[in-house]
Amino acid sequence: MCLICLEFEKESRRTMTIKEARRNFLEISSSLDEDHRQEVLDMLDRFEEEELMKDYYDWLFLDEAGSD
Ligand SMILES: [Zn+2]
User: Fold this and answer.
1) What is the pLDDT along the chain (68 residues), one digit of tens a residue?
2) Where are the domains positioned within the chain?
3) Phi, psi dihedrals of residue 28, rounded to the nearest 5°
């Protein structure tokens, strides 16, 4: 468990963006053990994918609603 996990556990109350988390990760990665480093990277990938999908759905919706 590290500050990135703590932050991302808050889910909707999360204040850290994935970009910030990745920057933080670079700073703290040397203090994490190898297993946890991989866990955090996997977690960030997952969140990033979710965010991309959300953006994509927003875009689809906007495209449909904004044709006028
Ligand atoms: Zn962690």
Assistant:
1) 899 999 999 988 999 999 999 999 999 999 999 999 999 999 999 999 999 999 999 999 986 665 56
2) 18-65
3) -100, -5
To which H or E segment does residue 26 belong?
helix 18-28
For residues 8 and 47, the answer to whether their CB atoms sit within 8 Å is: yes
Token output for 2: 């590290």
Tokens of 1: 């468990």
Q: How far, in Å, are 25, 26, 47, 58, 65 from residue 20 at the CA level?
A: 8, 10, 13, 23, 32
Q: What is the pTM of this model?
A: 0.79
Question: Cα(25) to centroid of ligand 1, in Å?
Answer: 9
Distance 23 CA to ligand 1 centre (A): 14
